[in-house]
């Protein structure tokens, strides 16, 4: 058997990883050459069949847990020891890109392939995970598979409905014969089960590209909150109600959205971001003053105290605008995740590997949420970012080079070899 830690590099098959990314990108391909592969859809099923094939070729035994997570597992020589886990996701946003999440799963399979092909002994069991519904594009809450794995999924999560009014419970039940959402508690992992969790992901921002770095080391992930805000007013006919007698919730919503932008933009270090991505009028009609307007708010910051303060400012302005315009409002919290820190030890390991490659790898914060955020509840986490062109993500134009993805995978491989 070969020794676990390998001093030299260049073990990753860059062409194989990249060709698999392109092949997977054909499943759910849109007219704009993007990818639309929503969790638990027929496209997701087709993609999982293909990923299962690649996992098996890498010597992994493949199964689903009851949250719909796809798990490839290679047993260690000492199965009682905690697991070394690599993961990300293969579901997409609507009309998204080919690389988001995908490189973490396929990079993990490449690492397993190297260990298997070279008959490398390892004490710890290795798992490669494709988490279910990281994006939240199907049931609008996100990070479901990792939330479930760490024990944070609720009965309400399983009863959420998609646009076709199918519950997540039924979608899971119909997705695979191994999946029984009624038994989901059996799939919750305990803290002592997992040694570390590693994730590789495209940056989804411009820092690495602007500064000509192929990869970065993540030291923390910004906290995020997803809210649904409903503003209610008085409905009416668009042609008969004078402007000065209206209680129009659309006007209120427009003013609040502008306030969100101004409050978040005014923060001095630009670490706070607020986004309204969905807006709906009820009942909805070009000649109707709506009786209600509902919109989403995605609020993120690496500093929890500041994030909470900013949300309080937003709600204060929301309340004032509603009072000024004869409106009322409600706020529903869909998901609330605190900022998390990556393991200092794993950061040091990544940095040391970078030095062997004669690379000065930058340390950076992730503004996007990842499954690693949830996994930090039960284990130490580490993340590698890979440069993406112009920082574009969640779009068909999303792009990363074969060489950069291979570099990120090399660093992940070397870290895994130290831990297994």
What are the main properties of this structure?
single chain; nine-stranded mixed beta sheet; 22% strand; 420 residues; Alpha-Beta Plaits; 16 strands; alpha+beta; Aminopeptidase; globular
Please tell me about this protein's structure.
Helix content is 33%, strand content 22%. Helix 8 packs antiparallel against helix 9. Strand 1 and strand 2 form a beta hairpin. The protein has twelve helices and 16 strands. It starts with 13 loop residues before the first helix and ends with a helix. The N terminus is likely disordered. With 420 residues, the chain is an alpha+beta fold. The strands form three sheets. Strands 1, 2, 3, 4, 5, 6, 14, 15 and 16 form a nine-stranded mixed β-sheet that branches. Strands 7, 9, 10, 12 and 13 form a five-stranded antiparallel β-sheet that branches. The chain folds into two domains: 290 residues, Aminopeptidase; 115 residues, Alpha-Beta Plaits, CATH 3.30.70.
pLDDT < 50 stretches? 1-9
Largest sheet composition: 9 strands, mixed
Strand content: 15-25%
Rg measurement, Å: 23 Å
CATH topology category name of the largest domain? Aminopeptidase
What oligomerization state is this entry in? Answer: single chain
Number of helices: 12
User: What's the name of the CATH homologous superfamily of the largest domain?
Assistant: Zn peptidases
Mean pLDDT: 94
Order of helices and strands: HHEEEHEHHHEHEEEHEEEEHEEHEHEH
Name the CATH architecture of the largest domain.
3-Layer(aba) Sandwich
How many distinct domains? 2
């Amino acid at each position: 058997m070969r020794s676990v830690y390998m001093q030299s590099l260049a073990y990753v098959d860059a062409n194989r990883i990249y060709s698999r990314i392109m092949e997977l990108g054909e499943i759910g391909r849109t007219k704009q050459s993007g990818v639309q592969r929503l969790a638990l859809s027929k496209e997701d099923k087709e993609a999982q069949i293909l990923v299962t094939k690649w996992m098996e070729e890498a010597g992994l035994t493949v199964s689903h847990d009851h949250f719909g997570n796809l798990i490839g597992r290679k047993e260690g020589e000492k199965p009682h020891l905690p697991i070394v886990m690599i993961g990300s996701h293969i579901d997409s946003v609507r009309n998204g890109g080919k690389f988001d999440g995908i490189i973490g799963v396929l990079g993990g399979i490449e690492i397993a392939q190297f260990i298997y092909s070279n008959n490398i002994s390892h004490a710890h069991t290795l798992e490669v995970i494709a988490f279910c519904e990281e994006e939240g594009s199907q049931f609008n809450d996100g990070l479901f598979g990792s939330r479930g794995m760490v024990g944070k999924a609720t009965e309400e999560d399983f009863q959420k409905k998609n646009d076709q009014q199918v519950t997540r419970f039924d979608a899971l039940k119909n997705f695979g014969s191994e999946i029984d959402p009624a038994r989901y508690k059996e799939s919750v992992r305990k803290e002592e089960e997992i040694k570390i969790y590693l994730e590789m992901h495209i940056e989804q921002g411009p820092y690495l590209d602007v500064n000509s770095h192929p990869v970065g080391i993540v030291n923390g992930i910004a906290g995020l909150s997803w809210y649904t805000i409903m503003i209610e007013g008085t409905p009416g006919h668009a042609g008969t109600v004078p402007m000065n007698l209206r209680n129009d919730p659309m006007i209120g919503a427009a003013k609040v959205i502008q306030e969100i932008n101004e409050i978040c933009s005014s923060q001095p270090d630009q670490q706070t971001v607020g986004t309204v991505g969905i807006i709906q009028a009820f009942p909805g009609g070009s000649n109707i003053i709506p009786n209600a307007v509902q919109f989403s708010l995605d609020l993120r910051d690496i500093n929890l105290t500041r994030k909470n303060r900013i949300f309080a400012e937003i709600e204060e302005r929301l309340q004032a605008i509603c009072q000024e315009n004869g409106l009322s409002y409600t706020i529903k919290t869909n998901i609330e995740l605190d900022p998390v820190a990556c393991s200092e030890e794993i950061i040091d390991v990544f940095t040391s590997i970078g030095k062997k490659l004669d690379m000065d790898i930058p340390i950076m914060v992730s503004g996007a949420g990842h499954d690693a955020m949830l996994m930090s509840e039960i284990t130490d986490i580490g993340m590698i970012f890979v440069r993406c062109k112009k920082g574009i993500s969640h779009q068909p134009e999303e792009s990363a080079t074969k060489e950069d993805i291979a570099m990120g995978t090399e660093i992940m491989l070397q870290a895994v070899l130290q831990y297994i």
